[in-house]
Amino acid sequence: MSSPANSTNPRSTAVNYSPVEASVRSAMSAARLAQNRWAVTPLAERLARVRELRRLIADHAMLLAEASASARNRPPLESLTAEVLPVAEACRFLEREAESILAPRRHGSRGLPLWLSGVRSEVRREPLGVVLVIGPGNYPLLLPGVQLIQALVAGNAVLLKPGVGGSFAARALIEIIHRAGFDSHLVALLPESTEAARAAIEALPDKVIFTGSAATGEKILAQLAPHLIPSVMELCGCDAVIVRADADLDLAVREGW
Predict the structure, then answer these.
(1) Which residues contact 107 (CB under 8 A, 6 or more apart)?
(2) How many C-beta atoms lie closer than 10 Å to residue 215's C-beta?
(3) Which residue has the higher pLDDT, 205 or 256?
(4) Which residues neighbour 22 within 8 Å (Cβ) at sequence distance 6 or greater?
(5) CA-to-CA distance for 196 and 22, rounded, in angstroms?
């Protein structure tokens, strides 16, 4: 994803960013400040807010389902079962397992070669900072939702760049996250545009999570590589699909099934 040229004032070294770039950089700065405070928040307090988030998701389940389904012309019941309930269950999983997942792990000398005998090590799970989540268009609530909640529990801030048509669902979820007591700058919603994704990467997040096509993944990795920014890529492939005789064929074709 090559960067567009930014205009500069010939009498100064200041860069004149586009409105999208300026907005993304402002969100990044605010997220870093919020993350500094969040990183030292005890895990028990983080999980208490996740518990409240799960309660709010249950209370507003149909609102979330309709927000996700409307942009893709799908039945809200489908989004309720395929997206909203799994997000709530992801919260429950973290409430139950996060303490053990994030606990320090000590490694003894068993299995070490002779010249490392006596060496002891400990693995600690420390927050990374600001995580950029670039979401897909097909599951705009489930996939980025689970990713951002996991990042929050681990002590990070999140910038969420939704896929095409995913802003409505993302905004609905983020509003509920804020109502659950999370800092309003800890999770920021970016525009859907490619320019927003590019600007967010240029703002140097500490990790990038992307769900989408292999071709786009290659471009993102090329932009991340010079900065050694770690990433998680869930890239699409070609999978066999069975379309039932009573299915809506126009919908199946339009959605790429």
Answers:
(1) 120, 121, 122, 123
(2) 9
(3) 205
(4) none
(5) 10
Residues 6+ apart with CB under 8 A from 140: 68, 71, 162, 163, 165, 166, 168, 169, 170
Q: Which amino acid is at 125?
A: R
Are the C-beta atoms of 42 and 49 separated by less than 8 Å?
Answer: no
Mean pLDDT of 140-167: 97
Domains for the chain: give ranges and CATH numbers: 18-98+127-254 (3.40.605.10)
Six-digit token pair at 240?
Answer: 């066999």
For the residues 24-37, what does the mean pLDDT come to? 97
Reported as a single tens digit per residue, the pLDDT across 1-22 is: 444 445 445 454 567 889 999 9
Tally of residues, the chain: 257
Query: Which amino acid appears at position 18 of this protein?
Result: S
Predicted TM-score (pTM) of this structure: 0.84
CA nearest 231: which of 102, 134, 126? 134
Residue 118 near residue 132 (C-beta atoms within 8 A)? no
Half-sphere exposure of 58 (CA within 13 A, CB side): 11
Return the structure tokens found at 216: 């786009």
Of the candidates 202, 195, 197, the residue with the CA atom closest to the CA atom of residue 217? 197
CA angle (27 as vertex; 150, 11 as ends), nearest 5 = 145
Cβ-proximal residues to 225 (8 Å cutoff; 6+ apart), any chain = none
Q: For 242, phi and psi rounded to 5 degrees?
A: -100, 120
H helix runs in 60-141, sequence order: 61-70, 76-79, 85-102
Question: Residues with Cβ < 8 Å from 76, sequence gap 6 or more?
Answer: 62, 65, 66, 69
More confident residue, 74 or 85: 85
Q: 8 — phi, psi (to 5°)?
A: -130, 150
